[in-house]
Amino acid sequence: MRIMAVFAHPDDEIGCIGTLAKHAARGDEVMLVWTTLGELASQFGDQTHEEVTRVRREHGAWVAGKIGALHHFFDMGDSRMTGSRTEALQLARLYAQFRPNAVITWSDDHPHPDHRMTAKIAFDAITLARIPKIINEEGGGVPMAPAPDLGGSDSVDSGEDVRRLEAWREPVRFYQYHAPASPYPEVFTDITDTVEVAAEVMEYYQAFYRWTWDREQFLATRAVAGRLTGAKYAERFNLKASHLPARPYLH
C-alpha cells in the first residue's frame, strides 16, 4: 500500500503522524508532501528564502526519517495558495509518479485558507492524474519543466525531467482530518503502538515554534479519540465517500 499525506505547512502532519508511522512500520510506502514552506512563521524573522528553504529541508528530512517516509516540498507560497488548476496539476504529476492508494489531507472547512486550498487541490489532483493528456500537457516529446525540488532527498521529484508520465487510474481513498460538520463517515486508527513516535515529532516542532501546547496535552487529545473507539490512543479522520463499503456481517 502507498499512502501520501498532503499538507500546507510543516507541522500540519502532526494530526496523522501516528497513522503514517504505523503504516511505514508495516512496510507500506509513505510520502509526506507539503505545498508550502510555511515561510511566514514568525520564527523565521527576516531570513532569506534560501535560508528558510534550508531549515525546512532539515525539518522535512527529520520528520520523514523518524517515521520511515519519503518527503517532498512544493513552494506554492505560504498563505498565498489559490486552489488553482496549476497547483493541482503539480500535485497530480506527483500522484502519477508515487501512485498512492490513499491520501490524507486537511478538512474542507478549516479556517486557514492554505489548509482548505490544499484539501481542494489534493482532491482535484486525483482526477487530473487519471488523464494522460492533462498530466503530460507540456510533454509531447518535450521534457516537462521541473517543479522546485526542495525535498533534499532521493525521493520522487514532482515534474522531474521525464518524457511521459503514466496516468494513475486506480481508486484512491481520500481521508481528511476530522471535522464535526463533515457529512462523510468517520474512520479511526489505533496508534497506541506509535504514539511515542508521534509525540517525538510533536516535540520536535514544539521546540522550533515554542508552543505552549505540550506533550501531555498532545497525548490527551489522542486518548480522547481512543476512548471513542476502544483504543488507548487513536487518530480520527473522515473518509470522503458517500458510504463505507458494505460488511458481510455486523461485527
Describe this structure in words.
The protein has helices at residues 17-26, 49-67, 85-98, 113-128, 132-135, 195-209, 215-227; strands at residues 2-7, 29-34, 70-73, 102-105, 173-177, 186-190, 234-239. The chain is an alpha/beta fold. The protein has a 7-stranded mixed beta sheet, with helices on both faces. α2 (49-67) links the parallel β2 (29-34) and β3 (70-73). α3 (85-98) crosses α4 and α6 (195-209) packs antiparallel against α7.
Beta-strand segment tally: 7
SSE order in H/E notation? EHEHEHEHHEEHHE
Task: Determine the structural class based on helices, strands and strand pairing.
Answer: alpha/beta
The tally of helices reads 7
Strand composition percent: 5-15%
Average of the residue pLDDT scores: 91
How many angstroms separate the termini? Answer: 25 Å
Radius of gyration: 18 Å
Q: Rough shape?
A: globular
Helix content: 25-40%
Q: Flag low-confidence runs.
A: 139-151, 154-161
Strand order of the largest sheet: 3-2-1-4-5-7-6
List the helices and strands and how they pair.
Blueprint: E1 2-7, H1 17-26, E2 29-34, H2 49-67, E3 70-73, H3 85-98, E4 102-105, H4 113-128, H5 132-135, E5 173-177, E6 186-190, H6 195-209, H7 215-227, E7 234-239
Parallel strand pairs: 1-2, 1-4, 2-3, 4-5
Antiparallel strand pairs: 5-7, 6-7
Helix pairs in contact: 3-4, 6-7
Short overview:
This protein has 7 helices and 7 strands, in the order βαβαβαβααββααβ. The chain is an alpha/beta fold. The longest helix has 19 residues, at 49-67.
